[in-house]
Write a structure and sequence with these properties.
Elements: H1 2-21, E1 25-28, H2 29-38, H3 41-58, E2 67-75, E3 78-89, H4 94-160, H5 166-201, E4 208-211, H6 223-231, H7 234-254, E5 261-272, E6 275-286, H8 295-341, H9 347-358, H10 364-399
Parallel strand pairs: 1-4
Antiparallel strand pairs: 2-3, 3-5, 5-6
């Protein structure tokens, strides 16, 4: 797996030169997801958020800085100099709790990042599916146009030889014009799909093409697996970690009611005439938490923890409903594509109709209907496959994780 990721990174580095040599830029789904994570602005923003949360750990739970004091006093010709260093020792465990709270905050940020990355991946998968669908739809229409163009050419020759009527040729030309219009429209959809995927993968849209197929992947998760994945969803884990952080901050605020000890050490120098007298200075102190005993921060943190847990419970119920709906949609669309493709090859219609027309037992309208039906079946099959892949992307978004990637060619 590591070697595979390394090879993909090399492809990312070498891809611009390859794209200059050939306008077409093929991209697989795996590469698209990796580029979205590492090169696209959305992925870099997610990574930066994690780093910021981790840096807050280093900035939390630090001891207060020592105080250095230099004082010179002169009275009645006597000069006294004091040089002292004071350090407060927070021995109540408050700083340790604050560090733990920062770690919980970082864990929450990482869980949120997993959720954001899952949303980004779902967006990439949907855009990739749209591009792949637009490509295959354009290819099918191109094949249909070529087949009709060959039929029209044949009918023109036959008309000139007196073997068929002008009606047959004109009706075929009309059918060809409809397919050509659909094909031209498909080119616009293809360009729009490439433009939608391009910013997500940090690539220019010109010549961007998807590599892969719209075929189904592994079986969808069952109900037991879905139940396990719900508790692992990033935003739920993040709310749990944020609630734990609030609890730790409340405990840390409660410790502010305990006095902190301080130690002062230094020297005192006295100048009286020519005499020089030096002696040590030692002092012990305690803070007096008369006004600020952490009561404000404790109340806020406690209320925040309760709010986060209530929000978590509400979100969990919404997530369960959303996952059930997304799973049902994905399952239904998979069944639809399987059932539709199980009804045989539509090319049989064309072969039978062409033979019957050549034998004179079928009209041109029936032959064109066979051509039209075959093309419509192929396009409908592509629509069903694309709809199933989009539903799987939506299920991955609902689960907050990626479904397995299938790299197959049709």
């Amino acid at each position: 797996m590591r070697m595979r990721r390394l090879s993909i990174v090399l492809v990312l580095v070498l891809a611009p030169s390859a794209a200059r040599a050939d306008e077409a830029r093929l991209i697989s789904l795996e590469e698209a997801l990796l580029r979205a994570d590492t090169l696209a602005p959305a992925g870099r923003e997610i990574a930066a958020g994690i780093e910021r949360a981790r840096s807050e750990i280093a900035a939390s739970g630090l001891w207060p800085n020592p105080d250095l004091s230099l004082v010179r006093e002169e009275s009645a010709g006597v000069v006294e100099r004091f040089a002292t260093l004071s350090q407060t020792f927070p021995l109540t465990g408050r700083l340790s709790l604050e560090r733990d709270a920062a770690r919980s905050g970082a864990a929450a940020a990482e869980a949120d990042a997993r959720r954001d990355r899952a949303a980004l991946h779902a967006q990439v998968r949907a855009a990739f599916t749209d591009l792949l669908f637009a490509q295959e739809r354009s290819a099918e229409l191109g094949r249909g146009r070529t087949r009709l163009a060959e039929l029209v050419a044949t009918l023109r020759v036959r008309e000139e030889a007196g073997e068929s009527s002008g009606f047959d040729r004109m009706r075929a030309e009309r059918e060809l014009a409809d397919v050509e219009a659909d094909d031209a429209e498909a080119e616009g959809r293809l360009a729009a799909a490439a433009a939608a995927l391009a910013p997500l993968v940090a690539l220019p849209s010109r010549g961007l093409r998807a590599s892969g197929a719209l075929t189904p992947g592994p079986p969808l998760p069952d109900q037991e697996a879905l139940a396990a994945l719900v508790s692992m969803r990033g935003d739920l884990v993040a709310l749990d970690a944020q609630a734990e952080r609030a609890d730790l901050l409340a405990r840390a605020a409660r410790r502010r009611a305990v006095p902190d000890a301080s130690l002062t050490v230094g020297t005192k120098t006295t100048d009286a005439g020519t005499d020089d007298d030096r002696g040590p200075v030692i002092g012990l102190g305690l803070s007096l938490p008369l006004f600020d005993r952490g009561q404000g921060g404790r109340s806020v943190a406690t209320a925040e923890a309760a709010l986060l847990r209530a929000r978590r419970d509400h979100l969990a119920r919404s997530i369960e409903a959303g996952i059930a709906s997304a799973h049902a949609e994905a399952s239904a669309r998979r069944r639809a594509e399987d059932q539709y493709d199980s009804h045989g090859d539509p090319e049989d219609l064309v072969r039978i109709a062409r033979a019957a027309y050549e034998a004179g037992s079928m009209r041109i309208l029936d032959l064109l209907d066979a051509y039209r039906t075959t093309l419509a079946v192929r396009l409908r099959s592509l629509e069903l496959h694309a709809g199933a892949r989009r539903a799987e992307a939506a299920l991955g978004l609902a689960l907050g994780c990626d479904l397995p990637i299938v790299e197959e060619s049709r």
